[in-house]
Amino acid sequence: MSSSRGRLLAAATAALAGLAAVAVSHAATAGAALQKVRLGGDSSQTRIVLDLDRAVSAKLVSDGASDRRVVLMLPGVTPQGGALQGAGQGLVKTWVVDQASGGARLQMDLKGDAKVSRRFLLPPADGVDHYRYVLDVAPAAPGQVKLTSARPAPLKVRETTVRKAPLPLKKVVVIDAGHGGNDPGARGAQGHEKDVNLLAAQALKARLERSGRYKVVMTRNSDVYVPLESRVRIAQRADADLFISLHSDSGPDPSLSGASVYTLSDKASQRAAQFVSKDDWFMKASLTGDRGVSDILFDLTQRATRNRSGMFAQTLVSHIEGKAPMLRRSHRDAGFMVLLAPNVPAVLLEMGFVSNLDDERFLRDPERRGRLMDAVASAIDEYFGEATKLAAR
Fold it and tell me: Phi and psi dihedrals of 186, rounded to 5?
């Protein structure tokens, strides 16, 4: 073999190796799914863990030092189930993962002067079957200078930090399709309540998601049985801003007709306290271990939640009137299990009576059921709009 042919072969081999390396690098991120975001730590150091189904590469666009906003790009990565978001922990105030520039984008607002101190990728190991991309956030060094202006300060000036608008977190709405699986609910002439409830829940979910303003969580999205207590826990784990349970009523009198809205009754308050204390949920969420203080916090939290629930119930009734038949006393109270979360505004909507032929036809007609869910969605829009106004005062 001549030396020139040898050089050509070596060059070709090197080129192929380079292309293979690029292909491997691309394969490491293409089609990866971000499964979950977890936070841990405190104000001395906070760790953010991104659970992924394969290896990824990432680019840190901003470490948070200049404006308290961390931005991390993950090319080729898709957030599982759409955009993810949540309340922060430790040094992180809030976080959002959305789709941007062909990949996932993690944005975090920091509570104080801090920045990303290190980041690394962990492969599956020690019983963990997925990859983990880890970011550590630490407080800024004492006395660290952060100036907003690009011009040099001529004299001694007050040092300031650029503040961006808060991350636009979507409101979290949990929709509970009543009954399901081996719990069929009431029976009408054309079928069981559980089916009507699920169809209505899916229609409401689609309507809310079209607006782009909400993150919607379903307690069930198929014909399965979900225990009542689990439905409440789903709302709590999702940090829900609103919980709405959809049902179809029944009664011994076939002439009974119309929708009604339920909120938690006064008599059920003690039951809510027992529900919470069963696994010490509220104590774990409180900032103090003092039972007396926790009882006071629980009472204040529950009172505020019941006020917000009542506010939404009134708004909901006003939007449904004229769109569907209503019971004469349309806003009622009860001790339903799904209304017991002390920190999540919640209502139970009985959409009509499946024991009434006209109501059942109404609820089983896709067009009329859709109009009813449009009215419910409009009530949710107004509720959050009013809540925003009150918070801004």
Answer: -70, 155
pTM, entire model: 0.67
Q: What is the DSSP letter of 159?
A: -
3-state secondary structure 48-80: EEEEECCCCCCEEEEECCCCCEEEEEEECEEEC
How far is the C-alpha of 308 from the C-alpha of 344, rounded, in Å?
9
| pLDDT top residue among 166 and 232 | 232
Q: Are strands 171-177 and 242-249 parallel, antiparallel or unpaired?
A: parallel
Collapse the DSSP code of 246 into the 3-class scheme (helix H, G, I; strand E, B; otherwise coil) and give the result: strand
Strands 46-52 and 131-139: antiparallel
Cross-strand bridge partners of residue 136: 47, 118
Q: Give the confidence band of 123 by pLDDT, cuts at 50, 70, 90.
A: very high
The CA distance from 120 to 96, in Å, is 20
Comparing CA positions, the residue from 363, 355, 367, 374 lying closest to residue 325 is 363
- Decide if pLDDT at 382 tops 80: yes
User: Measured between alpha carbons, how far is 370 from 43 in angstroms, rounded to an integer?
Assistant: 47
Say which amino acid occupies 111. K
Beta strand 214-218 pairing with 242-249: unpaired
Radius of gyration of the chain (CA): 27
Question: Which parts of the chain fold into alpha helices (H)?
Answer: 3-29, 193-211, 228-237, 269-277, 281-285, 291-320, 357-364, 366-392
Q: Quick check: 189 and 357 in contact, CB under 8 A?
A: yes
Token duo for residue 178: 């009543």
Between CA 220 and CA 177 the distance in angstroms is: 7
Q: How far is it, in rounded angstroms, from Cα 27 to Cα 260?
A: 54
**Distance (Å, rounded) from C-alpha 186 to C-alpha 191?**
9
pLDDT at 145 over 70: no
Both structure tokens of 367: 């067009």
Indicate whether 8 pLDDT > 80.
no
Q: Are 54 and 131 in contact (CB under 8 A)?
A: yes
To which residue do tokens 């869910």 refer?
Answer: 373
Share of the chain above pLDDT 90, in %: 57
Phi/psi for 164 (5° steps) reads -85, 160
**How many of the other CB atoms lie within 10 Å of CB of 254?**
14
